[in-house]
Design a protein that fits this description.
Blueprint: H1 2-10, H2 15-35, H3 37-43, H4 49-71, H5 75-79, H6 81-98, E1 100-102, E2 105-111, E3 116-119, H7 120-138, H8 146-164, H9 169-185, H10 190-212, H11 222-234, H12 240-251, H13 277-310, H14 315-338, H15 357-378, H16 381-385, H17 387-391
Antiparallel strand pairs: 1-2, 2-3
Helix pairs in contact: 2-4, 2-13, 4-15, 6-7, 6-8, 7-8, 7-9, 7-14, 8-9, 8-10, 9-10, 9-14, 12-13, 13-14, 14-15
Length: 395
C-alpha cells in the first residue's frame, strides 16, 4: 500500500491531462471489447477475452512508457533531436525498400529479433516535431531570416513528408499540417507559411503526375486515393460499404445510444475496433458519448495551448503544442471519416483504437507533454523563460 501511495505521489505534470488519458483509456477498453466479438469468432474460436486482454497489456505498456517519459527532463529530448530525426529518415527509407507490403503500401517495419511490427511514420512524426521545436527555439534571434531559419526547416519537413507520401497520404498530410501550425506558433512570417504550403501542394501534384505515367503495376496507392475520393463524392466504390455501415451505426445510436455491447454494426463494419471505432462508440453510447470523446481531445489540445500562451517561443511550449495538436488533429480526422465528412484515411483514434505501437507512440507523446508541464510545476517563470540560452548551450 505504501508503494502504491509513493508511486501516486511520484506522478507529476498536468493532472487534467492524466484524467483525460484515464477517461480515453476507459472508453478504449469498453469499445474494443464490444467491437472485437466478430474478430474473436473468426480467429480465436469465440474467445472474446483474447483481444481485450491483449489490448489491456498494450495499454499497460503504454502507461509505463508515458510514466517513464514524463519523468525525463524534456530538454533531454532536444539533445537527441538531430540523431533521432536522421535515424527516422533511415528507417523510412528501409521501410520503403524492405517494409511489409499491406494493401499495396510498405508502411510497416519489423524488429528482427522481437518480431514486432510498427509504422515507421509514427517514429518520424515524433522525431520531426521534436526537431522543429528545437530549431525554432534556437533560431528565435533570426526567426524572420529566410535562408538561415526557414530554408533548413523546409528541407527537413520535405524529406520526411516525401518519404511517407508514397505509402501514406493521410499521415503525410497530418505531419505537414502539424509543421505549418508549429512554425506559425514559432513566429515565422506568414508569407513563409504560404511558401511552405505552396511547395507542399506543388510537390504533391508533381508526384501524382509522375506516378500517373508509370505502368499500372507501379502506380502504388494512387488508385486507392482516387477510389476513396470518388466514394466520398459520389457514394460509389469499394469503400462506400464502410461509410454506409458507419452511417447506420451513427444514425441508430440516438442521444444516449443502445448501451454498451448492444450495437449491431460491429458485425458488419470492417475494422470497427480501429478505423471506425468512433462510429461504434456513437452507436452504443449515443451522441452524448461521441461528444464526450470530442471534448476530451479538445481539453488535451487546450492544455498544450495553455503552456504556449504562458511561455511562448520556448522549446517546451513548442513541443507541447506540436504534440497535442498532432494527436488532436489525428483524432479529428478519424471522427470526420466516421461521420462521412472526409474520405476514408485509415487513421486510428489516438489512445482509443485497438493497436500496438500506435498506442505506445501516443503514450510517449503524452508523456513528453507531461514532462513539460512537470517542469513548469517545479520551476519558476524566470527559469523557464531563460530556457533557450540555458538548455541549448551544450545541445
Amino acid at each position: 500500500m505504501n508503494r502504491i501511495q509513493a508511486f501516486l505521489n511520484d506522478i507529476r505534470g498536468d493532472k487534467v491531462i492524466w484524467i483525460v488519458v484515464l477517461f480515453l483509456s476507459i472508453f478504449s477498453m469498453l469499445a474494443v471489447y464490444s467491437s472485437t466479438g466478430t474478430l474473436a469468432y473468426r480467429f480465436q474460436h469465440g474467445n472474446t477475452e483474447y483481444y481485450i486482454l491483449k489490448h489491456l497489456f498494450i495499454l499497460f505498456l503504454g502507461f509505463a512508457l508515458m510514466y517513464a517519459c514524463h519523468r525525463i527532463k524534456y530538454t533531454y529530448y532536444a539533445r537527441i533531436a538531430e540523431v533521432f530525426y536522421w535515424g527516422s529518415v533511415g528507417l523510412l527509407i528501409y521501410t520503403l525498400i524492405f517494409g511489409i507490403n499491406l494493401n499495396e503500401a510498405n508502411r510497416w517495419a519489423t524488429i528482427p529479433v522481437l518480431n514486432v511490427s510498427f509504422q515507421s511514420s509514427d517514429v518520424a512524426k515524433l522525431a520531426l516535431i521534436i526537431l522543429i521545436a528545437k530549431m525554432l527555439t534556437k533560431k528565435q534571434s533570426s526567426i524572420l531570416n529566410f535562408k538561415e531559419t526557414f530554408l533548413p526547416l523546409l528541407i527537413r519537413i520535405g524529406i520526411i513528408v516525401a518519404l511517407i507520401l508514397p505509402n501514406n497520404l493521410s499521415t503525410a498530410g497530418l505531419i505537414f499540417m502539424t509543421c505549418i501550425m508549429l512554425i506559425y506558433v514559432g513566429g515565422v512570417k506568414i508569407k513563409y507559411l504560404v511558401y511552405l504550403s505552396s511547395a507542399g501542394l506543388l510537390g504533391f501534384l508533381m508526384f501524382v503526375m509522375v506516378v500517373h505515367f508509370l505502368p499500372n503495376n507501379n502506380k502504388g496507392r494512387i488508385g486507392t486515393w482516387q477510389n476513396r475520393i470518388e466514394t466520398f463524392i459520389g457514394g460509389k466504390g469499394s469503400d462506400s460499404f464502410q461509410s454506409d455501415q458507419a452511417k447506420i451505426a451513427i444514425s441508430t445510436g440516438g442521444i444516449l445510444g443502445k448501451m454498451p455491447g448492444n450495437g449491431t454494426q460491429k458485425n458488419f463494419l470492417p475494422h470497427p475496433y480501429s478505423d471506425f471505432i468512433f462510429a461504434i462508440i456513437i452507436e452504443e453510447y449515443g451522441l452524448a458519448g461521441g461528444f464526450c470523446i470530442l471534448v476530451l481531445y479538445v481539453i488535451l489540445f487546450t492544455r498544450g495551448y495553455r503552456i504556449v500562451m504562458k511561455f511562448p517561443h520556448t522549446f517546451g511550449a513548442l513541443l507541447a503544442i506540436g504534440l497535442s495538436f498532432s494527436l488532436t488533429f489525428q483524432a479529428l480526422i478519424n471522427m470526420l471519416v466516421a461521420v462521412d465528412l472526409m474520405p476514408v484515411t485509415g487513421q486510428p483514434l489516438p489512445l482509443v483504437s485497438m493497436g500496438g505501437t500506435s498506442i505506445w507512440f501516443t503514450c510517449i507523446s503524452i508523456g513528453i507533454i507531461l514532462s513539460v508541464s512537470r517542469y513548469i510545476e517545479e520551476h519558476s517563470d524566470e527559469e523557464i523563460n531563460s530556457e533557450p540560452s540555458n538548455d541549448y548551450a551544450s545541445a
